[in-house]
Design a protein that fits this description.
This protein is of the alpha+beta class. The protein contains twelve helices and 14 strands. A hairpin with a 5-residue loop joins strand 10 and strand 11. It is globular and about 60 Å long.
Length: 474
């Protein structure tokens, strides 16, 4: 990857100058290599000031999960000060280059006069792209404008400047899941961490499918980690849209009253098994079962058999990729990987079934459930593949995800893994200060009780509160 470039602070508007080169630079993952372009900044106020248009999503004040996001406050302040109430490139200050993708380059940036809010600016030079890739740019911008979900990016502004398209989205400071996976012993996550990341990705895919969006690009490289350790899917240029008909009904099923969680001590706790009972659950299903495309796109190790064959594919490609994703997190490699790209594609298209690695240190509670889930997702006939008919609802009910309270998933504590999110010392200090406050109050009330016995009940209340004070959070 090119060296990071720092840009001077200036009050002038700027335009981008792109020079295409013939060299190919390998990306951070060995699974792909992309032709790069040299992108520099030239300050030319007159060139762009008359050709800049900005689109800001109309629901910026109604985003429920972003209601208190300081980024929206900063955007609102900047647009209020703008003469036309729009955000322009002159309002942004580029800090450094973050990376280069298939369509353009991504920069870390801030709003001028507001250093507290950071963003990622995706810059796409339309003059260097083919008509096919231009359609991908339009698709990504359209999909980003539709999203409102804690595990998906927010589009803060869509700026058209000359022949450049600029998308202002969330910046995730903790990198991507692929890089974090490579830091783990044996390139594998513990089972509890696999369950955590798989559950959040599943919820994000469920939301996309409910909008009629087939993702088609699921892989650890496209899963970014927010500052709080939760995930964010990225790169929507390979998606396609289809019609979806939501249904709501009540589903009767037999389940255990409280199942033994396979991941004792993990993110989701554990409970004891106490028999079975019949439950009637409300079920919302919104799966694009009629989706159909013949385009062969994606990362070869994650391609579904029907996509490799070229006979057309639908929503099932995402559930196949989800099975490959869980397998890679658990075993450190993909299930059909061969010695070359062609060999991998032949393994996927063949009748060979998924094979599980035998690793001694991986024999922990829950491995059988994980393998069973992977096996049902990696069924080569999409008509029999788990999730293809009823979507994420069937996958959520698999024993691998037992014990997860899905409406509360974004409030779960992320797993502690090697190279993961560091603990914030300030919060720990706050807990320590609160502990000293309780001790001081306990001392004063004890002395007061020794002098007067009239406040015994109040002291007992304070003493009990002290013994049941909240535990520290990471």
């Amino acid at each position: 990857m090119d060296e990071e470039t720092y840009f001077p602070d200036t009050d002038l508007d700027f335009s981008f100058t792109s020079t295409t080169t013939d060299r190919t630079v390998p990306s951070s993952s060995a699974r792909s290599s992309l032709a790069r372009s040299s992108l520099t900044l030239s300050f030319n106020e007159s060139r762009l000031s008359c050709s800049t248009t900005t689109t800001t999503p109309s629901n910026i004040t109604t985003l429920h999960h972003r209601k208190w996001d300081p980024r929206w406050s900063a955007i609102k302040a900047a647009t209020n000060l703008s003469s036309d109430r729009n955000l322009h490139l002159r309002h942004l200050k580029l800090i450094r280059h973050l990376g280069t993708g298939n369509l353009g380059r991504v920069f870390l940036c801030q709003l001028r006069d507001c250093n507290s809010a950071t963003f990622a600016l995706k810059v796409i030079d339309r003059d260097t792209l083919s008509n096919k890739k231009l359609s991908h740019v339009q698709m990504e911008a359209e999909i980003l404008s539709m999203l409102d979900h804690p595990f998906l990016p927010t589009l803060y502004a869509h700026i058209q400047a000359s022949h450049y398209t600029c998308l202002l989205i969330d910046f995730c400071p903790n990198g991507d899941l692929h890089s974090l996976l490579r830091k783990q012993p044996g390139n594998r996550f513990p089972l509890a961490a696999v369950r955590f990341f798989a559950a959040e990705v599943l919820v994000a895919l469920e939301y996309l499918h409910a909008l009629g969006i087939v993702y088609r690009d699921l892989k650890p490289e496209n899963i970014l980690l927010r500052e709080d350790g939760h995930i964010m899917l990225s790169d929507f240029d390979l998606c396609f849209k289809a019609d979806v008909v939501p249904t709501f009904k009540f589903q009767s099923r037999k389940s255990r009253k409280s199942r033994q969680n396979c991941f004792t001590g993990g993110c989701f706790g554990s409970v004891a098994d106490s028999g079975e009972e019949e439950e009637v659950d409300p079920e919302f299903v919104a799966e694009p079962v009629t989706a159909f495309s013949r385009s062969c796109v994606g990362t070869h190790e994650y391609l579904a058999p029907e996509l490799v064959s070229g006979n057309g594919h639908g929503n099932g490609v995402d559930w196949w990729a989800f099975g490959v994703f869980v397998y890679e997190l658990l075993y450190g490699t993909t299930p059909f990987k061969g010695g070359s790209k062609d060999s991998t594609l032949r393994n996927i298209a063949s009748s060979r079934q998924v094979r599980f690695l035998h690793v001694t240190e991986m024999e922990e509670a829950g491995t059988a459930e994980a393998n069973d889930l992977i096996g049902k997702l990696l069924v080569k006939d999409p008509r029999r593949r788990l999730g293809c008919t009823r979507g994420a609802q069937d996958i959520k009910r698999h024993p691998f995800f037992d014990g997860i309270k899905w409406p509360l998933i974004r409030h779960y504590k992320p797993p502690e893994v090697v190279g993961g999110v560091a603990r914030k010392r300030g919060h720990v200090g706050h807990v320590k200060r609160r502990r000293w406050l309780w001790k001081g109050l306990d001392y004063l009330m004890t002395r007061n009780r020794n002098n007067k016995n009239s406040n015994g009940n109040y002291y007992d209340y304070v003493h009990n509160c002290n013994n049941n004070k909240p535990r520290k959070h990471a």
